[in-house]
Design brief:
Oligomer: single chain
Largest sheet: 6 strands, mixed
CATH architecture: Alpha-Beta Complex
Helix content: 25-40%
Number of domains: 1
Structural class: alpha+beta
CATH topology: tt1808, chain A
Strand order of the largest sheet: 3-4-5-6-7-8
Radius of gyration: 16 Å
Strand content: 25-35%
Number of helices: 5
Order of helices and strands: HEEHEEEHEEEHH
CATH class: Alpha Beta
Length: 182
Amino acid sequence: MNQIMDELPSVIDFVTGRKLPRVGSEENRQAVEKFLVEQKGFLKSDIEVGVRIAFEVSGRPYASAVDLIVSLENRRLVAVKCAAGSLGSREREILAAARIVDAYQVPCSVVSDGRTAIILDTVTGKKRGEGLDKIWSREQALLFAGTFKPVGLTEERIQKERLIFRTYDVMNVNVVRPGSHP
């Protein structure tokens, strides 16, 4: 497997500096990372890349990753799915991921192709806006963090969101899942 990974075209991740295979929507993720830092004022240290998400569905283990999570003041505030193609078809996937990646719902969900974005309120599932300019700046996120009250889910709802996430996530092609790369 490592030999195959070494033969793939690669890119150096903007945030982490790690060498990553240039497959699927990786170039889109790089564009979003640069936008968050260069245009929205986030620090590279505010951004987690490839956040592992693992759980069981019907007794079977499943592992994947959330493309990006922006955290401030030790609170995860924004979860981002970087997609190639239709953003609307990935809204439910990022909502589910943002609802289960932590002990509380990450309050803002974003799906982006690096050129535009759809921003969603994770708790309500309602659209907050469209366009990269509608993503919070670091200053706006800090203001939100000051008033943020974590909202959890019932165990039954967590199980449903896990199933929804897995259903969408398995349809992603040309991705490197946790445990499948060096």
